[in-house]
Amino acid sequence: MSAAPSTLSALRSLLAARFPEKNRRPSGGVPTGVPAVDAALGGGLPAGRLTEIVSAAPSSGGQTVLAALLVATRAARQRVALVDAADGFAPDAVPADALRHLVWVRGRELEATLAAADVLVRDGNFAAVVLDLRGCDERALGKLPAATWHRLHRATEASAVAVLVQSTRPLVPAVPCRLILGLAQPLGSRRAVRGELAARLDVTMARGHAEARDEGQEALAG
Fold first, then answer.
1. Domain span at residue 56?
2. What crossing angle do the helices spanning 110-123 and 146-159 adopt, rounded to 10°?
């Protein structure tokens, strides 16, 4: 499902109409379907916590993870919300059936995009909410106040949803889990080997903010 509401009230109304009753979310983690990512996270995206995945470009490892997550959550009959800040999601690169459980919010302005993510996290109908910031203006991202991320942390903890932030450099302060992805081949013309790309994805766990920043710069330079 693709949605581009002009106001947050429109987004709330859309969610209320589509999901009149709260969906029961899994109490544990949400497997992404990417073996290296799930192993690094102890089984999948942890519920009630933010996870940041840093990849060099929208068409590299981050796209592979997103596609695999949609397939895995569809198989588990779990709902996913994608907040696509730079409108870079390519639905044609994902099996059509994997999109049936997806609410897709396409970004216009960074502030409104983050506010939409907050609404979706608090909504209570999703196993996972993905905030994809790849392709956004780096200077604008760097100017985001710490309070923005603090609110998202608190909302995530309160709702027990698994929140995945995708970025091209380490961005989220005090994030519990940050993974740095090695480069992967684009998905567009390689649908037949999507599983192979996911299996070969190189994943590094960043253990601290300074270390994550250095690893992210190395990944982007690589």
1. 2-221
2. 20
DSSP state of 159: H
Instruction: Please give the Cα distance from 191 to 92 (Å, whole number).
Output: 10
- How many distinct structural domains can be found in the chain? 1
Q: Which residue has the higher pLDDT, 184 or 181?
A: 181
CATH of the domain at 73: 3.40.50.300
Please state the pTM of the whole predicted model.
0.79
With beta carbons less than 8 A apart as the criterion, state whether 94 and 191 touch: no
pLDDT, greater one: 18 or 61? 61
Strand order in the sheet with 102-106: 2-3, 102-106, 80-84, 128-132, 162-167, 50-54, 177-181, 203-206
pLDDT per position as a tens digit, 121-150: 999 899 999 999 999 999 999 999 999 999
